[in-house]
Amino acid sequence: MTYTEQNLAAVAKRENNQKRGYLVVNPLQGKHLPVSPGEAFRMFDALAGLLIREYEGERLLLVGFAETATAVGAAAAAALGSLYIQTTREQLRGAEYFYFSEAHSHATEQKLVKGDLDRAAEQAGRIVFIEDEITTGNTIRNITALLEQAYPGRFVFSAASLLNGMDADCLQAYADRGIRLHWLLKTCHEGYERLAEGYRGDGKYYRCNINIPAISVREERITAGYQDARRLTDGGAYREACRRMGRTALELLKPAAEERFLVVGTEEFMYPALMLARLLEEGGHPVRCHSTTRSPIAVSSEEGYPLHERYELRSLYDRERTTYVYELAKYDRVCIVTDAQEGAEEGLHSLINALASCGNERIHVIRWCPS
Questions:
Q1: Is the peptide bond before 67 cis (omega within 30 degrees of 0)?
Q2: What is the pLDDT of residues 41-84, one digit of tens each?
Q3: pTM, 2 dp
Q4: Are 311 and 323 in contact (CB under 8 A)?
Q5: Residue 330 CA to chain centroid, in angstroms?
Q6: How far is the C-alpha of 354 from the C-alpha of 348, rounded, in Å?
Q7: Between vectors from CA 288 to CA 160 and to CA 27, what angle results, nearest 5°?
Q8: Phi, psi of 15 (to 5 degrees)
């Protein structure tokens, strides 16, 4: 399939961000907008295909950027059979980190587990950073400089993204550093800021209750085969672990024929949710999937604007953090897929209440956790 700006790049207005006033929303990514999982995986596989042709026989470490590129990174690593790790903004018990920043993001701090990079340095010779979109490339340049200092002469670097909006100067800066670039679609961001400023931001905004929901919710905990992609893993093994989790979830859900499903992931935890959604779709069920996000995006009633309704939530990972979910609707059943553990109750309640406010009455929670 040939991807175009019309089907991969919708401009939205960031809220309270002085560094960049716009956000490019990819309707097929399964983050902000609900998508058929088959469409999302076809796009991920198209990006992976570029890397397979380019790096066959090389020992690769793929690094997916949190939070929006965690699923595309995992899917690409699975297709290549490479090592995989995602960046994270969460705090992992007992881990030492490399810290770097993503200046334009709402949540700027990014981390990689240092011990896992030490192990990867013994196995891989090239790091490929996976992003949904690269605009200036400054974030990746920052992390490559850090890793070159930590592992002199050990790695060469590439970057692959669904969208690339780099201008000529940014592209030259990468060429000068010897960082190879790959993308599905080249975009030009000239005019995006002005376009975003012109949107009214007059959509529907909801702040969701953190109290115990009025509806009954079925919750299941799956511990078998748990893997955390915030730690170094094998891409193929991670895919199989997610598939096993998904098949276990299907046994618990016992979906009836023709039931319409929504599957909702939580923040960085996108890929396992998409995998369950894909299994449902392969079973003949109409299904859509997307995830909660830290990004506060203005919503608008204007036709052609990508986001019209926003639900403000409490995070399942940090009770002091505000998160969001967009464009909810009524389905026959909804399945929330998360790896959040202790202290998630208020965040989970806010998400369930958001779903219930749209008429959803059959809501399931699947926690994929180590214990």
A1: yes
A2: 999 999 999 999 999 999 999 999 999 999 999 999 999 999 99
A3: 0.96
A4: no
A5: 23
A6: 10
A7: 40
A8: -105, 130
